[in-house]
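We examine the record.
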Amino acid sequence: MPVPIIGFVPQPTLEDAEMENTMSQHGMTGLSQLSVSINYTLWRNPGDRSDPVNLAELDEPTRRALDEPAPQPRPAWLIEMAERRRYPMLWEAVRTTWTRDASEFSTPTRLLIDHADHILMNQFREELGLGDMGIDRFISPLTEKTVNRDAVVTVEGVEMPALEIDTDPFVYAIGAELSSDTVLTAVVPRDALQHIRIEFARRHSATG
């Protein structure tokens, strides 16, 4: 990543899952855009991780698969990954996007809407009445008119102008232009908002 990766500020309710999602675009002269998204495990009661309130709502097949003993020994990383499925995840919650050459598709507004659409389409299919992936065409409820351009967000301890989508019933989204080539966006399910401080900083981890 040509620029620092941004994430939520450290807070007890969020645990960086150390699993990034990346997206890239290439043009005639090489890499033109790169995005890195951070996933988080959500702890509703971080003071007692054994509290059942921390568990995700799982369907019976998933719960049974997690509870059944493995037919053969598994490496520690695979065991840890399986155990994470017991807890709610904020998938691709915070995204840093670097763009080499600006275009209509790389504006902060466009990137914020695209990020929110991505989460809605992949995480809220049932709520939106969509069928299996690839069957029903997703029609975004978000447009430039749904974006509030008078928001403020704190990044690295400094307040800065931000864009905000606070009209969708399923997600809250916020973004900011960090520099001429870098945009921060974040999309959070509404039922998780009460547990999160919406503030950002450079990510410090083994991979970032």
User: Anything to note?
Assistant: The beta strands are 6-8, 14-27, 30-42, 89-99, 148-155, 158-165, 171-179, 182-189, 200-202. The first helix runs from residue 60 to 67. DSSP finds three helices and nine strands in the chain.
